[in-house]
């Protein structure tokens, strides 16, 4: 039996990824996380001296803190299993990537274990995050110069 | 007559005792009543998951030995394996147990390959008592091959859940009243170009089909000769492909086929396609199947353990996943 | 799963109720100014769906809420409005912001009619808007 023939058999049996279902779940999960973050932002604006602009920093910190608790109690992986990208894309997913790696490598010590491996998964998020931020800034600069958007 | 990869054991070495241990999640397994010990803690109250892994294996060995009324120093050989880098849990178990040790690696097929090697040693007259088997521990193996345990990555339907379990067999020259090893077949590494590590069943199915074919042809057997033909950890998807391949070989009666990985968690969808790991097949073979052989519910079984021979690095480098399947035939007279 | 279902139900309810925030225009004159000009200017801007404006002493502070799809240009809308208001009231120090914090705080200042400390509060708001992140 050759590889192509086997690939045909394999594809006819392996269930296809339910893209629509996954997209819907990601939308619901990601949307819920963002909604919660919006509540927190409104909370900071209502009870503290933060404006819409400055409230984003404490909101992000709070969301990462919540994500840390969920990761530690083993709940975030369930959210991730349900929501897929919806759980991975918001800042909570980033926090989960950092914290899960830190928990995992604690047994190898704090310097070489936690320190060395904490950004094992999130490192590429930081790298490509910075890179895409650069690209987005470039696009926005062009849009502002064209007068379509403002800073 | 010498045939490639085929083994026969005219002296019928016997599996005189087994020891099976499992983690807390494995209470959900329909086989859990056959397990000798179930821990309440995933890492067996050890400091690290890897130590827990070693403890899982060590306890299974001690249970198997104690059923015989033996101590480790009575055993001649210790043939075990696992999936962690350089098999450290097996190495640590071997250190504490002190039996002359050979590490065996065939990924998740280690359960059968170690038993075949033990049968060979016994057949040659070099061994009066050999301990063989394999183990896996969910946290240690997932970390080895995939993401950190708490990382929220979505796994698809075809992904498998590494079982926390150890299955250890004590093998001696022939004794009456216990299951014996009749023959076996070492598999060929088969690579059908599958690359998805979250669909290992599809990578392993051709190896299982190939080994089954070679075993039946080489030993002149029919599928209907067996009460049960159980593959290792193909999972739901891999097992469906395996059945399709078997049917393509012209075998129509598939009633006695089953898969240890698929059945391990009772087809619970929380565990996706089913269980995997070196301990999965070992635990099922040496608990459920062994018990049914002992009670003479099964007279003759064929166990085909399958293993995906990948490393996290090999698939990241874009390599395909070669697979292997080893078969062992047990009878009860 | 049951917990998730309850949570979804609860959240959709919250979603629906969240739409019930009224969008109003409030204008308060505590500085003896002619406010009708400002009122016309703000209300005629189609991109603005709510505003709170307070004239106090030599200050004019305006918080606006822009329509959803104009939010991309909200700082631009605010600064346009600020320029035109400055032209109308050259003697006042004008602050226009599309930040919801300014809107709610200005509304609060209008509604709590006590007169002491208003000046201080306005200065605080100006500091908030100018704060660097």
TrEMBL record, chain A:
The chain crosses the membrane at residues 26-47, 59-76, 83-103, 123-143. Coiled coil: none annotated. Keywords: Membrane, Transmembrane, Transmembrane helix. The keyword Amino-acid biosynthesis does not apply. Pfam families: SpoVAC_SpoVAEB. InterPro entries: Spore_V_AC, SpoVA. This is Stage V sporulation protein AC.
Automatic annotation (TrEMBL), chain B:
This is Stage V sporulation protein AD. It comes from Sporosarcina quadrami. It comes from the Bacteria. InterPro entries: SpoVAD, SpoVAD_sf, Thiolase-like. Pfam families: SpoVAD.
């Amino acid at each position: 039996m050759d590889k192509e023939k086997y690939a045909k058999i394999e594809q006819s049996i392996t269930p296809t990824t339910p893209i629509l279902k996954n997209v819907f779940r990601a939308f619901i999960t990601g949307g819920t996380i963002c909604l919660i973050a919006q509540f927190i932002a409104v909370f900071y604006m209502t009870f503290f001296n933060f404006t819409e602009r400055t409230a984003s920093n404490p909101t992000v910190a709070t969301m990462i803190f919540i994500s840390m608790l969920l990761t530690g109690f083993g709940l975030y992986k369930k959210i991730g299993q349900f929501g897929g990208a919806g759980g991975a894309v918001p800042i909570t997913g980033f926090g989960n990537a950092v914290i899960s790696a830190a928990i995992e490598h604690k047994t190898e010590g704090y310097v070489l274990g936690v320190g060395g491996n904490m950004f094992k998964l999130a490192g590429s998020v930081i790298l490509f995050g910075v890179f895409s931020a650069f690209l987005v800034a470039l696009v926005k600069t062009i849009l502002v110069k064209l007068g379509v958007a403002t800073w | 007559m010498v045939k490639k990869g085929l083994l026969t054991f005219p002296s019928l070495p016997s599996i005189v005792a087994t020891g099976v241990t499992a983690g807390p999640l494995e209470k959900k397994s329909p086989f859990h009543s056959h397990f000798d010990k179930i821990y309440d803690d995933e890492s067996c109250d050890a400091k690290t998951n890897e130590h827990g892994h070693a403890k899982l294996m060590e306890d299974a060995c001690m249970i198997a030995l104690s059923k015989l009324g033996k101590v480790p120093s009575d055993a001649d050989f210790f043939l075990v394996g696992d999936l962690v880098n350089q098999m450290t849990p097996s190495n640590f178990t071997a250190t504490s147990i002190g039996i002359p040790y050979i590490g065996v690696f065939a990924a998740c097929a280690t359960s059968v390959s170690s038993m075949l090697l033990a049968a060979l040693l016994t057949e040659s007259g070099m061994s009066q008592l050999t301990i063989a088997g394999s183990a896996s521990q969910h946290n240690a193996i997932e970390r080895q091959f995939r993401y950190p345990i708490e990382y929220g990555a979505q796994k698809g339907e075809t992904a498998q859940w590494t079982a926390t379990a150890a299955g250890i067999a004590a093998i001696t020259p022939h004794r009456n009243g216990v299951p014996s090893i009749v023959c076996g077949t070492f598999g060929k590494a088969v690579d059908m170009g599958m690359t998805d590590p979250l669909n290992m069943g599809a990578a392993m199915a051709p190896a299982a089909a190939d080994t089954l074919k070679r075993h039946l042809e080489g030993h002149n057997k029919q599928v209907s000769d067996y009460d049960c033909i159980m593959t290792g950890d193909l999972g739901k998807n891999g097992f469906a492909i395996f059945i399709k391949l078997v049917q393509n070989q012209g075998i129509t009666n598939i009633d006695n086929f089953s898969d240890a990985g698929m059945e391990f968690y009772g087809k619970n969808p929380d565990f996706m396609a089913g269980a995997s790991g070196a301990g999965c097949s070992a635990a099922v073979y040496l608990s459920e199947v062994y018990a049914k052989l002992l009670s003479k519910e099964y007279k003759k079984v064929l166990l085909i353990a399958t293993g995906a021979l990948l490393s996290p690095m090999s698939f990241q480098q874009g390599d395909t996943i070669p697979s292997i399947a080893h078969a062992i035939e047990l009878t009860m007279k | 799963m049951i917990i998730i279902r309850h949570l979804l139900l609860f959240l959709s309810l919250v979603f629906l109720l969240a739409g019930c925030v009224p969008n109003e225009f409030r204008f308060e004159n505590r500085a003896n100014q002619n406010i009708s000009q400002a009122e016309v200017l703000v209300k005629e801007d189609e991109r603005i769906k709510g505003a709170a404006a307070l004239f106090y002493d030599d200050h004019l502070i305006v918080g606006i809420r822009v329509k959803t799809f104009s939010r991309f240009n909200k700082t631009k809308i605010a600064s346009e409005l600020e320029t035109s208001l400055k032209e109308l009231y050259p003697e006042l120090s004008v602050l226009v912001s599309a930040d919801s914090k300014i809107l709610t705080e200005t509304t609060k200042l209008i509604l709590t009619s006590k007169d002491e400390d208003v000046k201080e509060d306005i200065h605080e708001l100006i500091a908030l808007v100018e704060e660097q992140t």
